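Good morning C.,

I know you're traveling, so I'll keep this short. The sequence:
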Amino acid sequence: MELYLPVFAALFVTAYGCSAPGRDRPDAPLEEKIYKSQFVAYGTVLETFPDPVYSEKDVYAAAVSVKCTYKGGMLPINVTVVGAGKMPRCPEVNLHKMTDYILLLKSRTDKYYDVEFGPMTGDPQMIDEILIVCDLALVYTKGSDAEKNDDCPEIFEDVQTEENCLRYNPPQNNATFSTQSPNITTKDTVIKSYPDGEPEPEPEPDIKINDSDKSESKSMGNGKRTGQSAISDNGNGKELYSLSGFLLFTCTSVATFLL
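The tokens, ready to paste straight into the viewer:
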């Protein structure tokens, strides 16, 4: 039994991983963290207190006064960040009172916000590194004095151009799909196998025609016989030729007389 406990624990951690999204990748590139975060907020931790959402012993929440956001739009001036401290199977996240942080957050409710990735110190150098990431927009918090006090560094337009900003490109799915129609086998489909190779096709049988069929075929014609040849097959062909000759002679005589 003792031999199986470490293996079970390893499988449990592997299967479930960190209970907070993003915490198990503290070394992810900055542009990836910002891309996957709903909010990028800049604010000050006012106080910490027991977490109202998570029941783990070493997990706590923090009241944060938000100065501005660089992604996600405007946040309330006071928000509660939950999930700080030691979450199960996650790197520890520390938030100290009266300290400025850049917080990568995800909205849980209108009141509570999860730490999506570990926070970063709000020193000017770190903020400058964030400002080179693409698709950021500075939004000051309503009711805050940050704009008046110029607490949030501005984003320069020349940095946010496609040529100069740092963009995260999610990995593409390289799966290929066949454009050929699949072979569908139904219940009525019969599949034949030929171990010695597919046999030669059988020759078509010779069809013998009786004399009576030949006579009938001749009398009916082959579809190309017209005019005099068709008339000549009739028993009265000679009479028709005589009548046509008489009419031709009469018309010629009348025409000669008139001229």
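Safe travels,
E.
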